[in-house]
Amino acid sequence: MILYPSVDDLLEEVDSRYSLIMLASKRAHELDAGELPMLSEYESVKSVGKALEEVVAGDLKIKQD
């Protein structure tokens, strides 16, 4: 269960829960592969939590084609 960031805060940045899950999952894989972090510090130690923090900070967005 995630406490921070809240699902409500996350859904303000992304259109749907499905899109949020896909975005966070892809970013978590990138972080696990050694990609540089977008934030200077994180509350979470896990890559999925870090990805969600990047979403709520507005640094991670879905590309619109």
From TrEMBL:
Phylogenetic placement of the source organism: Bacteria, Bacillati, Bacillota, Bacilli, Lactobacillales
Organism in which the protein naturally occurs: Ligilactobacillus agilis DSM 20509
EC supergroup of this enzyme: transferase
Physiological role: Promotes RNA polymerase assembly. Latches the N- and C-terminal regions of the beta' subunit thereby facilitating its interaction with the beta and alpha subunits.
Coiled coil: none
Domain of life: Bacteria
Homology family: Belongs to the RNA polymerase subunit omega family.
Catalytic activity annotation: RNA(n) + a ribonucleoside 5'-triphosphate = RNA(n+1) + diphosphate
Record keywords, A-Z: DNA-directed RNA polymerase, Nucleotidyltransferase, Transcription, Transferase
MF-aspect GO terms: DNA binding; DNA-directed RNA polymerase activity
Annotated EC: 2.7.7.6
Assembly, per entry: The RNAP catalytic core consists of 2 alpha, 1 beta, 1 beta' and 1 omega subunit. When a sigma factor is associated with the core the holoenzyme is formed, which can initiate transcription.
Record HAMAP family: RNApol_bact_RpoZ (MF_00366)
GO term, biological process aspect, one: DNA-templated transcription
NCBIfam families listed in its UniProt record: rpoZ
PANTHER family recorded: DNA-DIRECTED RNA POLYMERASE SUBUNIT OMEGA
Protein name: DNA-directed RNA polymerase subunit omega
Gene Ontology cellular component terms for the protein in this record: DNA-directed RNA polymerase complex
